[in-house]
Amino acid sequence: MKPATHNDAFWLPFTAQRQFQQQPMLFTAAQGMHYTTDDGRQVLDAMAGLWCCNAGHGQPRITEAIREAAGRMDFVSSFKMSHPAAFTLAERIAAIAPEGMDHVFFTNSGSEAVDTSLKIARAYHQARGDARRTLLVGRAKGYHGMGFGGLSVSGLGRHKRDFGPLLPDTAHLPLPYDADARFSHGQPATDAQYANALEQLFVVHDPATIAAVIVEPVTGSGGVYPPPVGYLQRLRELCTQHGILLIFDEVITGFARVGAPFAAQAFGVTPDLICCAKGMTNGAVPMGGVIVGNTVYDAFMQGTSSVIELFHGYTYSAHPLACAAGLATLDVHEELELAARVQAIAPVWEAALHGLRDAPHVADVRNIGLLGAVDLASRPGAAGARGNAVHTACFEAGVLVRNSGDTLVLSPPLVISAAQIGEIVDSIRTALLATA
Ligand SMILES: Cc1ncc(COP(=O)(O)O)c(C=O)c1O
Protein backbone atom coordinates (compact mmCIF):
# COMPACT_ATOMS: atom_id res chain seq x y z
CA MET A 1 0.00 0.00 0.00
CA LYS A 2 1.13 3.57 -0.71
CA PRO A 3 1.87 5.76 2.31
CA ALA A 4 -1.31 7.29 3.73
CA THR A 5 0.20 10.79 3.64
CA HIS A 6 -0.52 11.15 -0.06
CA ASN A 7 -2.26 8.66 -2.29
CA ASP A 8 -4.45 9.09 -5.31
CA ALA A 9 -7.58 7.99 -3.48
CA PHE A 10 -8.03 11.65 -2.54
CA TRP A 11 -8.90 13.57 -5.72
CA LEU A 12 -7.98 17.12 -4.77
CA PRO A 13 -10.12 20.15 -5.68
CA PHE A 14 -8.68 22.70 -8.15
CA THR A 15 -5.34 20.86 -8.21
CA ALA A 16 -3.18 19.28 -10.89
CA GLN A 17 -3.74 15.85 -9.38
CA ARG A 18 -0.89 13.98 -11.08
CA GLN A 19 1.64 16.75 -10.50
CA PHE A 20 0.63 16.82 -6.84
CA GLN A 21 1.50 13.13 -6.57
CA GLN A 22 5.06 14.03 -7.63
CA GLN A 23 5.36 17.15 -5.45
CA PRO A 24 2.88 16.89 -2.58
CA MET A 25 2.49 19.89 -0.30
CA LEU A 26 1.38 18.72 3.12
CA PHE A 27 0.75 20.59 6.35
CA THR A 28 0.32 19.06 9.75
CA ALA A 29 -0.34 22.00 12.09
CA ALA A 30 -1.22 25.70 12.11
CA GLN A 31 -0.85 28.40 14.72
CA GLY A 32 -1.19 32.16 14.48
CA MET A 33 0.39 33.34 11.22
CA HIS A 34 2.13 30.04 10.43
CA TYR A 35 1.61 26.56 9.07
CA THR A 36 3.90 23.64 9.93
CA THR A 37 4.82 21.40 6.99
CA ASP A 38 5.05 17.63 7.25
CA ASP A 39 8.84 17.97 7.34
CA GLY A 40 8.63 20.38 10.27
CA ARG A 41 9.18 23.74 8.55
CA GLN A 42 7.33 26.91 9.58
CA VAL A 43 5.63 28.68 6.68
CA LEU A 44 4.20 32.20 6.91
CA ASP A 45 0.61 32.10 5.66
CA ALA A 46 -0.02 35.00 3.25
CA MET A 47 -3.46 33.62 2.29
CA ALA A 48 -5.26 33.11 5.64
CA GLY A 49 -5.69 29.49 4.55
CA LEU A 50 -7.90 30.21 1.53
CA TRP A 51 -9.10 33.74 2.40
CA CYS A 52 -10.74 32.40 5.56
CA CYS A 53 -8.64 32.32 8.76
CA ASN A 54 -8.99 36.07 9.32
CA ALA A 55 -8.16 36.01 13.04
CA GLY A 56 -5.10 33.80 12.50
CA HIS A 57 -4.89 30.05 12.96
CA GLY A 58 -5.72 28.11 16.09
CA GLN A 59 -7.53 30.85 18.01
CA PRO A 60 -7.96 29.09 21.38
CA ARG A 61 -11.40 30.55 22.02
CA ILE A 62 -12.73 29.18 18.73
CA THR A 63 -11.11 25.77 19.21
CA GLU A 64 -12.53 25.50 22.72
CA ALA A 65 -16.04 26.54 21.61
CA ILE A 66 -16.05 23.82 18.94
CA ARG A 67 -14.80 21.23 21.42
CA GLU A 68 -17.46 22.18 23.95
CA ALA A 69 -20.27 22.17 21.37
CA ALA A 70 -19.24 18.77 20.00
CA GLY A 71 -19.31 17.30 23.48
CA ARG A 72 -22.79 18.69 24.20
CA MET A 73 -24.88 18.11 21.06
CA ASP A 74 -23.45 16.60 17.88
CA PHE A 75 -26.31 17.53 15.57
CA VAL A 76 -29.80 18.86 15.37
CA SER A 77 -31.69 19.65 12.20
CA SER A 78 -33.01 23.14 11.54
CA PHE A 79 -35.95 21.84 9.51
CA LYS A 80 -38.93 22.70 11.74
CA MET A 81 -36.67 22.80 14.84
CA SER A 82 -33.28 24.19 15.78
CA HIS A 83 -31.08 25.15 18.74
CA PRO A 84 -30.51 28.39 20.67
CA ALA A 85 -27.00 29.16 19.35
CA ALA A 86 -28.35 29.41 15.78
CA PHE A 87 -30.66 32.26 16.81
CA THR A 88 -27.95 34.01 18.80
CA LEU A 89 -25.50 33.78 15.90
CA ALA A 90 -28.08 35.11 13.39
CA GLU A 91 -28.84 38.02 15.70
CA ARG A 92 -25.18 38.84 16.25
CA ILE A 93 -24.41 38.73 12.53
CA ALA A 94 -27.42 40.97 11.84
CA ALA A 95 -26.10 43.37 14.50
CA ILE A 96 -22.82 43.89 12.59
CA ALA A 97 -24.48 43.84 9.14
CA PRO A 98 -25.62 47.06 7.42
CA GLU A 99 -28.75 48.60 8.90
CA GLY A 100 -31.98 47.08 7.62
CA MET A 101 -30.48 43.62 7.05
CA ASP A 102 -31.78 41.70 10.06
CA HIS A 103 -32.11 38.10 8.86
CA VAL A 104 -29.66 35.28 8.14
CA PHE A 105 -30.22 32.05 6.17
CA PHE A 106 -27.45 29.58 7.06
CA THR A 107 -25.63 27.38 4.55
CA ASN A 108 -22.40 25.35 4.72
CA SER A 109 -20.22 27.07 2.16
CA GLY A 110 -19.88 30.12 -0.01
CA SER A 111 -21.17 28.22 -3.04
CA GLU A 112 -24.34 27.31 -1.19
CA ALA A 113 -24.68 30.89 0.04
CA VAL A 114 -24.51 32.17 -3.54
CA ASP A 115 -27.00 29.64 -4.91
CA THR A 116 -29.30 30.40 -1.97
CA SER A 117 -29.12 34.14 -2.66
CA LEU A 118 -29.97 33.62 -6.35
CA LYS A 119 -32.93 31.42 -5.41
CA ILE A 120 -34.14 33.93 -2.80
CA ALA A 121 -33.90 36.69 -5.41
CA ARG A 122 -36.07 34.85 -7.93
CA ALA A 123 -38.51 33.66 -5.26
CA TYR A 124 -38.79 37.21 -3.92
CA HIS A 125 -40.05 38.46 -7.27
CA GLN A 126 -42.41 35.47 -7.50
CA ALA A 127 -43.72 36.22 -4.02
CA ARG A 128 -44.51 39.77 -5.15
CA GLY A 129 -46.32 38.51 -8.24
CA ASP A 130 -43.56 39.56 -10.64
CA ALA A 131 -42.63 36.21 -12.19
CA ARG A 132 -41.10 37.83 -15.27
CA ARG A 133 -37.97 38.71 -13.32
CA THR A 134 -35.69 35.71 -13.74
CA LEU A 135 -32.49 37.06 -15.36
CA LEU A 136 -29.39 36.88 -13.15
CA VAL A 137 -26.56 39.29 -13.95
CA GLY A 138 -22.95 38.54 -12.98
CA ARG A 139 -19.71 40.24 -13.96
CA ALA A 140 -16.52 39.39 -15.83
CA LYS A 141 -13.90 37.73 -13.56
CA GLY A 142 -16.52 37.17 -10.84
CA TYR A 143 -16.08 34.00 -8.75
CA HIS A 144 -19.21 32.78 -7.02
CA GLY A 145 -18.37 29.21 -6.09
CA MET A 146 -18.93 25.97 -7.88
CA GLY A 147 -22.67 25.25 -7.73
CA PHE A 148 -24.50 25.47 -11.04
CA GLY A 149 -26.06 28.79 -9.99
CA GLY A 150 -22.80 30.41 -8.93
CA LEU A 151 -21.04 28.98 -11.98
CA SER A 152 -23.73 30.39 -14.28
CA VAL A 153 -23.16 33.95 -13.00
CA SER A 154 -19.39 33.41 -12.83
CA GLY A 155 -17.21 35.56 -15.05
CA LEU A 156 -14.39 33.03 -15.42
CA GLY A 157 -14.76 31.21 -18.71
CA ARG A 158 -12.32 28.42 -17.96
CA HIS A 159 -14.33 27.44 -14.87
CA LYS A 160 -17.47 27.04 -16.94
CA ARG A 161 -16.05 25.48 -20.09
CA ASP A 162 -16.47 21.80 -19.25
CA PHE A 163 -19.81 21.87 -17.45
CA GLY A 164 -22.43 23.34 -19.71
CA PRO A 165 -25.18 23.94 -20.38
CA LEU A 166 -25.47 26.22 -17.37
CA LEU A 167 -28.49 28.33 -16.38
CA PRO A 168 -29.78 29.92 -19.58
CA ASP A 169 -31.06 33.11 -17.99
CA THR A 170 -27.85 35.01 -17.26
CA ALA A 171 -25.92 38.02 -18.54
CA HIS A 172 -22.66 39.67 -17.50
CA LEU A 173 -21.24 43.13 -16.86
CA PRO A 174 -17.64 43.99 -17.79
CA LEU A 175 -14.87 44.10 -15.19
CA PRO A 176 -14.52 47.73 -14.06
CA TYR A 177 -10.84 47.93 -14.87
CA ASP A 178 -8.51 48.92 -17.69
CA ALA A 179 -4.84 49.60 -18.25
CA ASP A 180 -5.18 53.21 -17.01
CA ALA A 181 -6.02 51.83 -13.57
CA ARG A 182 -2.76 49.91 -13.24
CA PHE A 183 -0.86 50.52 -9.99
CA SER A 184 -3.82 52.39 -8.45
CA HIS A 185 -3.48 52.59 -4.70
CA GLY A 186 -6.72 51.22 -3.28
CA GLN A 187 -9.80 52.13 -5.32
CA PRO A 188 -9.10 53.35 -8.87
CA ALA A 189 -10.53 56.73 -9.86
CA THR A 190 -14.11 56.77 -11.02
CA ASP A 191 -15.00 55.76 -14.50
CA ALA A 192 -18.75 56.10 -14.93
CA GLN A 193 -18.79 53.94 -18.06
CA TYR A 194 -18.36 50.76 -16.01
CA ALA A 195 -21.49 50.98 -13.85
CA ASN A 196 -23.35 52.45 -16.78
CA ALA A 197 -22.66 49.16 -18.56
CA LEU A 198 -25.72 47.98 -16.66
CA GLU A 199 -27.76 50.58 -18.50
CA GLN A 200 -26.35 49.26 -21.77
CA LEU A 201 -27.44 45.77 -20.74
CA PHE A 202 -30.98 47.14 -20.43
CA VAL A 203 -30.93 47.64 -24.19
CA VAL A 204 -30.50 43.90 -24.66
CA HIS A 205 -32.49 42.72 -21.64
CA ASP A 206 -35.55 44.63 -20.54
CA PRO A 207 -34.80 45.67 -16.93
CA ALA A 208 -38.26 44.40 -15.93
CA THR A 209 -36.96 40.85 -16.60
CA ILE A 210 -33.89 41.12 -14.37
CA ALA A 211 -34.12 39.47 -10.93
CA ALA A 212 -30.73 40.39 -9.52
CA VAL A 213 -27.25 41.69 -10.11
CA ILE A 214 -24.55 39.81 -8.18
CA VAL A 215 -21.05 41.19 -7.73
CA GLU A 216 -18.16 40.76 -5.37
CA PRO A 217 -17.61 44.29 -4.00
CA VAL A 218 -13.91 43.55 -4.53
CA THR A 219 -13.32 40.87 -7.18
CA GLY A 220 -11.37 38.27 -5.21
CA SER A 221 -10.26 34.98 -6.77
CA GLY A 222 -10.44 36.59 -10.22
CA GLY A 223 -7.43 38.73 -9.22
CA VAL A 224 -8.33 41.26 -6.46
CA TYR A 225 -9.83 44.22 -8.33
CA PRO A 226 -11.12 46.96 -5.98
CA PRO A 227 -14.18 48.82 -7.30
CA PRO A 228 -13.57 52.25 -8.84
CA VAL A 229 -14.75 55.12 -6.63
CA GLY A 230 -18.53 55.51 -6.98
CA TYR A 231 -18.99 52.30 -9.02
CA LEU A 232 -20.97 50.37 -6.39
CA GLN A 233 -23.05 53.46 -5.62
CA ARG A 234 -24.04 53.71 -9.28
CA LEU A 235 -24.93 50.01 -9.45
CA ARG A 236 -27.10 50.49 -6.36
CA GLU A 237 -28.86 53.48 -7.92
CA LEU A 238 -29.61 51.65 -11.15
CA CYS A 239 -30.84 48.51 -9.37
CA THR A 240 -33.12 50.52 -7.09
CA GLN A 241 -34.45 52.56 -9.99
CA HIS A 242 -35.41 49.40 -11.90
CA GLY A 243 -36.61 47.14 -9.08
CA ILE A 244 -33.60 44.80 -9.41
CA LEU A 245 -32.09 43.18 -6.32
CA LEU A 246 -28.41 43.86 -5.67
CA ILE A 247 -26.45 40.95 -4.18
CA PHE A 248 -22.98 41.42 -2.74
CA ASP A 249 -20.93 38.24 -2.64
CA GLU A 250 -18.85 38.97 0.46
CA VAL A 251 -17.49 35.46 0.93
CA ILE A 252 -14.00 36.99 0.89
CA THR A 253 -14.63 40.60 1.90
CA GLY A 254 -16.89 39.80 4.87
CA PHE A 255 -15.67 39.68 8.45
CA ALA A 256 -13.27 42.64 8.46
CA ARG A 257 -11.06 41.84 5.46
CA VAL A 258 -11.45 45.40 4.10
CA GLY A 259 -11.56 47.25 7.43
CA ALA A 260 -15.29 47.06 8.27
CA PRO A 261 -17.48 44.07 9.19
CA PHE A 262 -18.60 43.96 5.54
CA ALA A 263 -17.40 45.69 2.39
CA ALA A 264 -20.92 47.12 2.14
CA GLN A 265 -20.05 49.36 5.09
CA ALA A 266 -16.50 50.01 3.95
CA PHE A 267 -17.83 51.36 0.62
CA GLY A 268 -21.04 52.85 2.03
CA VAL A 269 -23.42 50.85 -0.19
CA THR A 270 -26.17 48.60 1.18
CA PRO A 271 -27.21 45.69 -1.05
CA ASP A 272 -30.40 43.63 -0.66
CA LEU A 273 -28.59 40.36 0.06
CA ILE A 274 -25.06 39.58 1.29
CA CYS A 275 -23.44 36.17 0.78
CA CYS A 276 -20.86 35.24 3.38
CA ALA A 277 -18.80 32.20 4.49
CA LYS A 278 -15.05 31.66 5.10
CA GLY A 279 -14.19 34.21 7.83
CA MET A 280 -17.61 33.60 9.41
CA THR A 281 -16.13 30.73 11.46
CA ASN A 282 -12.50 31.74 10.90
CA GLY A 283 -12.33 28.74 8.58
CA ALA A 284 -12.53 26.35 11.52
CA VAL A 285 -15.86 24.72 10.62
CA PRO A 286 -17.56 24.96 7.21
CA MET A 287 -20.34 27.54 7.27
CA GLY A 288 -21.91 30.10 4.99
CA GLY A 289 -24.97 32.28 5.01
CA VAL A 290 -27.09 34.87 3.26
CA ILE A 291 -27.83 38.07 5.14
CA VAL A 292 -31.24 39.19 3.97
CA GLY A 293 -32.57 42.74 3.83
CA ASN A 294 -35.83 43.39 5.62
CA THR A 295 -37.79 44.32 2.49
CA VAL A 296 -36.89 41.00 0.89
CA TYR A 297 -37.61 38.99 4.04
CA ASP A 298 -40.92 40.73 4.65
CA ALA A 299 -42.13 39.90 1.15
CA PHE A 300 -41.98 36.20 2.08
CA MET A 301 -43.72 36.62 5.43
CA GLN A 302 -47.18 37.19 3.98
CA GLY A 303 -50.14 34.88 3.52
CA THR A 304 -50.95 31.78 5.55
CA SER A 305 -48.53 31.47 8.43
CA SER A 306 -48.61 27.65 8.53
CA VAL A 307 -47.19 27.36 5.00
CA ILE A 308 -43.41 27.05 4.40
CA GLU A 309 -42.28 30.38 2.92
CA LEU A 310 -39.05 29.20 1.27
CA PHE A 311 -38.69 25.64 -0.01
CA HIS A 312 -34.94 25.58 0.46
CA GLY A 313 -32.35 24.48 3.03
CA TYR A 314 -29.54 22.08 3.82
CA THR A 315 -29.23 19.22 6.31
CA TYR A 316 -26.34 21.03 7.96
CA SER A 317 -27.76 24.59 7.88
CA ALA A 318 -26.90 26.12 11.29
CA HIS A 319 -24.91 23.05 12.38
CA PRO A 320 -24.22 23.30 16.14
CA LEU A 321 -20.41 23.12 15.70
CA ALA A 322 -20.46 25.83 13.05
CA CYS A 323 -22.67 28.07 15.19
CA ALA A 324 -20.34 27.65 18.15
CA ALA A 325 -17.35 28.51 15.95
CA GLY A 326 -19.23 31.48 14.49
CA LEU A 327 -20.10 32.92 17.89
CA ALA A 328 -16.54 32.50 19.16
CA THR A 329 -15.23 34.10 15.96
CA LEU A 330 -17.36 37.19 16.58
CA ASP A 331 -16.02 37.34 20.15
CA VAL A 332 -12.45 37.20 18.84
CA HIS A 333 -13.16 39.90 16.26
CA GLU A 334 -14.48 42.16 19.02
CA GLU A 335 -11.66 41.37 21.42
CA LEU A 336 -8.90 41.92 18.85
CA GLU A 337 -10.76 44.82 17.17
CA LEU A 338 -9.90 43.29 13.81
CA ALA A 339 -11.71 45.82 11.61
CA ALA A 340 -9.83 48.72 13.25
CA ARG A 341 -6.63 46.74 13.02
CA VAL A 342 -7.06 46.36 9.27
CA GLN A 343 -7.64 50.09 8.90
CA ALA A 344 -4.45 50.76 10.87
CA ILE A 345 -2.18 48.37 9.00
CA ALA A 346 -3.65 48.74 5.47
CA PRO A 347 -1.35 51.70 4.61
CA VAL A 348 1.70 49.59 5.54
CA TRP A 349 0.36 46.77 3.34
CA GLU A 350 -0.32 49.15 0.46
CA ALA A 351 3.14 50.75 0.60
CA ALA A 352 4.90 47.39 0.86
CA LEU A 353 3.02 45.84 -2.07
CA HIS A 354 3.50 48.86 -4.33
CA GLY A 355 7.20 48.68 -3.48
CA LEU A 356 7.18 45.67 -5.85
CA ARG A 357 6.30 47.89 -8.81
CA ASP A 358 9.90 47.98 -10.03
CA ALA A 359 10.64 44.29 -9.44
CA PRO A 360 11.20 42.16 -12.57
CA HIS A 361 8.10 41.00 -14.50
CA VAL A 362 5.62 43.04 -12.42
CA ALA A 363 2.79 44.32 -14.63
CA ASP A 364 0.36 45.65 -12.01
CA VAL A 365 -0.17 45.85 -8.25
CA ARG A 366 -3.60 46.19 -6.63
CA ASN A 367 -4.63 46.48 -2.98
CA ILE A 368 -7.52 47.22 -0.67
CA GLY A 369 -7.85 46.47 3.05
CA LEU A 370 -5.71 43.39 3.61
CA LEU A 371 -6.15 42.09 0.08
CA GLY A 372 -3.55 42.38 -2.62
CA ALA A 373 -2.59 41.17 -6.08
CA VAL A 374 0.57 41.31 -8.15
CA ASP A 375 0.15 40.66 -11.89
CA LEU A 376 3.23 39.20 -13.56
CA ALA A 377 3.94 39.36 -17.26
CA SER A 378 3.47 35.85 -18.67
CA ARG A 379 6.34 33.91 -20.15
CA PRO A 380 5.87 33.76 -23.92
CA GLY A 381 3.71 30.75 -24.75
CA ALA A 382 3.58 29.59 -21.13
CA ALA A 383 0.78 31.38 -19.29
CA GLY A 384 0.85 30.61 -15.58
CA ALA A 385 4.40 29.22 -15.55
CA ARG A 386 5.95 32.31 -13.97
CA GLY A 387 3.22 32.50 -11.34
CA ASN A 388 3.78 28.83 -10.48
CA ALA A 389 7.54 29.38 -10.25
CA VAL A 390 7.14 32.32 -7.85
CA HIS A 391 4.66 30.38 -5.74
CA THR A 392 7.16 27.49 -5.44
CA ALA A 393 10.14 29.74 -4.71
CA CYS A 394 8.23 31.60 -1.99
CA PHE A 395 7.11 28.34 -0.43
CA GLU A 396 10.67 27.06 -0.36
CA ALA A 397 11.67 30.34 1.30
CA GLY A 398 8.96 29.84 3.94
CA VAL A 399 6.06 31.98 2.67
CA LEU A 400 2.76 30.64 1.33
CA VAL A 401 1.36 32.87 -1.42
CA ARG A 402 -1.30 31.86 -3.93
CA ASN A 403 -1.05 32.23 -7.67
CA SER A 404 -3.97 32.27 -10.02
CA GLY A 405 -2.11 31.84 -13.29
CA ASP A 406 0.38 34.70 -13.42
CA THR A 407 -1.40 36.75 -10.78
CA LEU A 408 -0.20 36.43 -7.19
CA VAL A 409 -3.15 36.93 -4.83
CA LEU A 410 -2.61 37.76 -1.18
CA SER A 411 -4.95 37.75 1.79
CA PRO A 412 -3.05 37.27 5.06
CA PRO A 413 -4.64 36.78 8.48
CA LEU A 414 -5.69 40.18 9.81
CA VAL A 415 -3.39 39.80 12.81
CA ILE A 416 -0.32 40.18 10.58
CA SER A 417 2.49 42.46 11.80
CA ALA A 418 4.39 45.05 9.75
CA ALA A 419 7.49 42.83 9.96
CA GLN A 420 5.56 39.87 8.53
CA ILE A 421 4.25 42.05 5.69
CA GLY A 422 7.90 42.87 4.97
CA GLU A 423 8.73 39.15 4.99
CA ILE A 424 6.02 38.37 2.41
CA VAL A 425 7.06 41.16 0.07
CA ASP A 426 10.77 40.36 0.41
CA SER A 427 10.17 36.72 -0.45
CA ILE A 428 8.19 37.73 -3.57
CA ARG A 429 10.92 40.17 -4.65
CA THR A 430 13.64 37.56 -4.12
CA ALA A 431 11.62 34.99 -6.05
CA LEU A 432 11.08 37.43 -8.93
CA LEU A 433 14.78 38.28 -9.08
CA ALA A 434 15.62 34.58 -9.24
CA THR A 435 12.87 33.67 -11.73
CA ALA A 436 13.25 33.87 -15.48
C1 LIG B 1 -16.52 35.43 -3.64
C2 LIG B 1 -16.68 33.95 -3.44
N1 LIG B 1 -17.90 33.43 -3.51
C3 LIG B 1 -18.11 32.12 -3.32
C4 LIG B 1 -17.07 31.28 -3.03
C5 LIG B 1 -17.32 29.81 -2.84
O1 LIG B 1 -17.12 29.45 -1.52
P1 LIG B 1 -16.91 27.92 -1.13
O2 LIG B 1 -15.62 27.49 -1.71
O3 LIG B 1 -16.95 27.95 0.38
O4 LIG B 1 -18.07 27.17 -1.69
C6 LIG B 1 -15.78 31.78 -2.93
C7 LIG B 1 -14.63 30.91 -2.65
O5 LIG B 1 -13.50 31.28 -2.73
C8 LIG B 1 -15.58 33.16 -3.15
O6 LIG B 1 -14.36 33.69 -3.11
Automatic annotation (TrEMBL):
Family annotation (CDD domains): OAT_like (cd00610)
Annotated Pfam families: Aminotran_3
Keywords on record: Aminotransferase, Pyridoxal phosphate, Transferase
Cofactors: pyridoxal 5'-phosphate
Domain of life: Bacteria
PROSITE patterns associated with the record: AA_TRANSFER_CLASS_3
One Gene Ontology MF term: transaminase activity
Matching InterPro entries: Aminotrans_3, Aminotrans_3_PPA_site, PyrdxlP-dep_Trfase, PyrdxlP-dep_Trfase_major, PyrdxlP-dep_Trfase_small
Family per similarity comment: Belongs to the class-III pyridoxal-phosphate-dependent aminotransferase family.
Name of the molecule in the record: Aminotransferase class III-fold pyridoxal phosphate-dependent enzyme
Top-level taxonomy: Bacteria, Pseudomonadati, Pseudomonadota, Betaproteobacteria, Burkholderiales
